[in-house]
Design goal:
This protein has helices at residues 3-10, 36-47, 59-68, 85-94, 110-118, 131-162, 179-192, 208-217, 239-244, 261-264, 280-292, 318-323, 329-335, 352-367, 376-384, 390-404, 413-416, 430-444, 449-456, 460-471, 475-481; strands at residues 28-32, 52-56, 73-77, 100-105, 123-126, 198-201, 226-230, 269-273, 294-295, 304-305, 309-314, 338-341. It is an alpha/beta fold. The protein has three domains: 3-143, Rossmann fold; 164-343, Rossmann fold (3-Layer(aba) Sandwich); 347-481, Helicase, Ruva Protein, domain 3 (Orthogonal Bundle), CATH 1.10.8.60. Helix 14 (352-367) crosses helix 16.
């Protein structure tokens, strides 16, 4: 750019636009303009605000830079030597570039502007322009990208809410007051602040996504996206594209380029549930992405930087899966920097009343029905049940009970029985069956309530409350209750 053009660019410029609290350092910009003065000016103006700024004098050099580096935004002059800016923009979109493009030119008419916007330009600015014009245009582009990510995450969360996903937490905390859940809270508070990857293990339905969300909310990334993905729910031939994205024509049916879940989780947390279901070949790619913090969309030759914290979860023992050759050892160690095992519900049955009340409050608004009365008898029966489906099963039971207008605790009888009943006991009431079974197990343990509670799948506190209730009416049981602690 000559001296006159440079003077026009700076002349009459208003003060630099207020950038607010938005973090421009997370973004990269490529300036493509054949006028050296314009390139230098924009580089100086933007370099102190953005994470990376590069420049090129023509489309050929710009293409070389884009083959090696990722740019969130292009500032592209229309009048370039060789291929024009609009022609190159059309080619970029055809090859899958999804970033924003601001077109600038000193010579334009309405037809040119329309052609630019049809080609996929995010904005169109005439030279000479003021500094605040270009800064505000850039800011709008970055804000649109941020909103796109947030809207994507919100749509996923709404879809999960409609299908009943989520196991009952206010996101910032975990429901219950048992020692197990208090220890888990303390772990979340400590680990949440760290950038390390986390592996959550435990039985199905124990609330691994709830803990993952709590870790995210406790982290410096809390204001950025939390993107959950169930690896078991995506077809193996599609999961690579779902995670990393793809370019147009990458495979049959790829009619348009598409961003992956890593893109939408940028700056935030990606929760990979049921990670043991990932194919071994994809485990290799995931390990590389975690270690190098760069990914390559399917069918693309360009690598993109990623800034994502990984939280993974599995209901299988991943160490055993490694031994069986079904999970990569190096990926396992990379994920298990912090390994948290979630307790099953039967190990914290004292939390059941809190969980039931929590679920009733959630479901009351969704179902349009009033919460049910939670009697002592209902609580006792709920706590006596082993809950093989854990918190998820409990939530489903509460929902069913609210729909039917009362707690259907009788339906919980069958899974509680851990020993076959003699034929003469088949006519007993559920309460009597429960009592005799607990008495039998406790007697087999020589009165050791700690061991009996472990075998029954309930807490010792629940077992002691049962004995206290029964002992008032049964002297023989009172004697049994008086045995060892």
């Amino acid at each position: 750019m000559g001296k006159r053009a440079a003077h026009e660019f700076g002349a009459g410029a208003s003060p630099v636009a207020e950038l607010g609290e938005y973090n421009w350092q997370a973004h990269s910009i490529l300036v493509v303009d054949d006028e050296e003065g314009m390139r230098n000016f924009l580089e100086r103006t933007l370099a102190r605000r953005c994470g990376m700024v590069q420049s090129a004098a023509d489309a050929e050099h710009a293409a070389e830079l884009m083959a090696r580096l990722h740019f969130d935004l292009l500032i592209l002059d229309i009048a370039l030597p060789g291929k024009s800016g609009i022609e190159w923009l059309h080619a970029l979109r055809e090859h899958g570039y999804t970033g924003d493009v601001i077109l600038v030119t000193a010579f334009a008419d309405m037809e040119t502007a329309i052609d630019a916007l049809r080609g996929g330009a995010s904005d169109f600015i005439l030279k000479p322009f003021r500094v605040d014009q270009i800064l505000n245009s850039i800011k709008r582009c970055f804000e649109r990208a941020r909103l796109s990510r947030e809207n994507f995450v919100l749509r996923r969360e709404l879809a999960e809410a409609r299908t009943g996903a989520g196991l009952g937490s206010d996101v910032t905390g975990l429901v219950g007051h048992s020692s197990a859940i208090e220890q888990l809270r303390a772990m979340v508070r400590r680990v949440g602040q760290m950038p390390s990857t986390v592996l959550l293990q435990g039985e199905s339905g124990t609330g691994k996504e709830v803990v993952a969300r709590a870790l995210h909310q406790s982290s410096p990334r809390a204001q950025r996206p939390f993107v959950p993905v169930n690896c078991a729910a995506i077809a193996s031939e599609l999961i690579e594209s779902e995670l990393f994205g793809h370019v147009k024509g990458a495979f049959t049916g790829a009619h348009e380029s598409r961003n992956g879940l890593f893109y939408y989780a940028h700056g935030g947390t990606l929760f990979l549930d049921e990670i043991s279901e990932l194919p071994l070949a994809l485990q290799t790619r995931l390990l590389r992405v975690i270690e190098e913090r760069r990914l390559r969309p399917v069918g693309s030759e360009r690598e993109l930087p990623v800034d994502v914290r990984i939280i993974a979860a599995s209901n299988r023992d991943l160490a055993a899966e490694v031994q069986a050759g079904r999970f990569r050892q190096d990926l396992y160690y990379r994920l298990a920097v912090v390994d948290i095992t979630l307790p099953p519900l039967r190990a914290r049955s004292e939390d059941i009343p809190d969980l039931v009340q929590h679920f009733m409050q959630q479901l009351s608004a969704q179902l349009g029905v009033a919460p049910l009365r939670l009697s002592h008898e209902v609580v006792s029966r709920l706590q006596a049940y082993a809950w093989p489906g854990n918190v998820r099963e409990l939530r489903n039971h509460v929902e069913r009970s609210m729909i039917l207008g009362g707690f259907t605790v009788e339906a919980l009888a069958a899974p509680c029985a851990q020993q076959a009943l003699p034929a003469g006991e088949l006519a007993l009431s559920l309460a009597e069956v429960e009592r005799r079974h607990i008495e039998r197990v406790t007697a087999d343990c020589a009165g050791n309530k700690t061991e009996a509670a472990r075998r029954l799948g309930v807490s010792r506190k629940t077992l002691e409350r049962k004995f206290a209730e029964w002992a008032t009416d049964d002297p023989a049981l009172a004697a049994l209750d008086g045995r060892e602690a």
